[in-house]
Write a structure and sequence with these properties.
Layout: H1 6-9, H2 28-47, E1 51-52, E2 58-60, E3 73-75, E4 81-84, H3 89-99, E5 107-116, E6 129-138, H4 143-159, E7 164-169, H5 171-180, H6 185-196, H7 200-209, H8 214-224, E8 227-228, H9 231-239, H10 243-259, E9 264-266, E10 276-285, E11 293-299, E12 305-312, H11 313-320, E13 330-333, H12 336-344, E14 348-351, H13 357-367, E15 371-374, E16 377-380
Parallel strand pairs: 1-5, 7-9, 13-14, 13-15
Antiparallel strand pairs: 2-4, 3-4, 5-6, 6-12, 7-10, 8-9, 10-11, 11-12, 15-16
Helix pairs in contact: 2-4, 2-11, 4-10, 5-6, 5-10, 6-7, 7-8, 9-10
């Protein structure tokens, strides 16, 4: 399969007039590449016991939805406010609660499809319409379950030829340390953001404003630097004072022991700490400054535990381009028997639409076709 050029991947409004900003046309080479990746991922997920589902692209709009502020909304003929699907976890959770209320748990599900966001986001490469494949492991909450997802994430990326580094976080650890330091309300919220940005300068400004002690300020700075290998867990253990913080470190040690392979830890990660209830993780591939995969542990409505991850197919296509096999040769078949013979040989065959050899020759040159077939016999492209 041919690598996709940058010009084919990124189509601006100037090169593709008539489409909204943040959307794009997908041309045949990239489409084939993306579908091959989707099929490989689905096969890997199935081999691990994750069964496929589909959920509607239209949902009921709700202020409680985690992406409500970013969702495209519309009104149906009955006056009901609907939203285009903006993330999969909520939809899969709704399906799990309504279709599998009694399990059996753990429930392993996989999905693939398109998402839409009203606002342009740099994290998604300025796209408002994009594709994801992913899995959800629902109904169990344990280090074994978290380790399974890390193993599966690594296996899925390797199966499409992408070598990536897994980076593990635990947003609740930062919150627990801030709680142990006696921080609450607005001060705690703002420090979450400063620590997540790893902004020591902002930490100092907030510490001075709120009159924090030197010891607490040093602890906050240490949080911004909790990044690296297994030694990070040792540093976090020394920092953990309360029950929640100590439990987070113990859980991460258990997960790491079960994964066995190399992991990076970012215990200063604090984004969406109010959404994630445990381990979070991302996978970074060389040459990309944004993750190709992300996920974590959460609680569904009603308290049902869940965890999963999603892979952005547009970003994965960039990371996997050099690892995908070349496309099969395309030939021009002058009759149905020739087309079948070519396809039986593993080639792609287009049928001739005319007996005009000059027209067929001109088309073959433009299309890059170098061989014709008729019956069981091969013909060279006529000049």
């Amino acid at each position: 399969m041919r690598p996709v050029s940058a010009s084919a991947r990124v189509l601006s409004r100037s090169t593709a007039p008539g489409i909204p900003e943040g959307t794009r046309d997908v041309l045949p080479p990239e489409w084939a590449q993306r579908e091959a990746l989707r099929a490989r991922l689905a096969a890997t997920f199935s081999a691990w016991g994750y069964r496929g589902i589909e959920v509607p692209a239209l949902e009921y709009a709700s202020p409680a939805h985690p992406q409500d502020a970013l969702a495209f909304k519309l009104i149906d003929s009955g006056g009901q406010v609907l939203a285009l699907r903006s993330e999969f976890t909520t939809a899969v959770g709704r399906l799990a609660r309504t279709r599998f209320p009694a399990g059996p748990f753990p429930l392993r599900l996989q999905y693939a499809g398109r998402l839409w966001l009203r606002a342009l986001t740099s994290e998604l490469g300025r796209l408002r319409e994009f594709n994801q494949s992913g899995v959800e492991l629902i109904g169990v909450e344990s280090a074994h379950a978290d380790a399974e997802l890390l193993h599966l994430a690594d296996a899925a990326l390797r199966d499409v030829g992408v070598h990536a580094q897994l980076e593990v976080g635990y947003p609740g650890f930062v919150d627990a340390v801030l709680e142990d330091a006696g921080l609450h309300g607005r001060a705690r919220e703002e420090l979450h953001h400063a620590i997540d940005r790893k902004s020591g300068a902002d930490v100092d400004v907030l510490a001075r404003r709120d009159g924090l002690s030197g010891d607490v300020t040093r602890t906050l700075h240490e949080l911004t630097e909790l990044y690296g290998g297994p030694e990070v867990l040792d540093a976090a253990a020394h920092m953990a004072q309360g029950t929640r913080a100590r439990a987070a470190v113990a859980h991460l040690r258990d997960v790491a022991a079960q994964v066995g392979g190399p992991l990076l830890f970012d215990l200063g990660v604090s984004r969406r700490y109010d959404y994630y209830t445990g381990v979070t993780f991302r996978a970074y591939s060389s040459g990309l400054n944004q993750p190709v995969l992300g996920g974590g542990r959460y609680a569904l409505e009603g308290g049902l535990p869940g965890a999963g991850f999603a892979i952005g197919l547009e970003r994965l296509a960039r990371a996997a381009a050099s690892a995908l096999p070349p496309e099969p040769e395309v030939v021009l078949a002058l009759d149905l028997a020739g087309a079948q013979a070519a396809r039986d040989a593993g080639l792609h065959a287009e049928l001739a639409w005319t007996d005009d050899r000059a027209a067929l020759s001109a088309y073959s040159r433009e299309r890059g076709i170098t061989r014709w077939i008729a019956g069981n016999g091969w013909l060279e492209v006529q000049p």
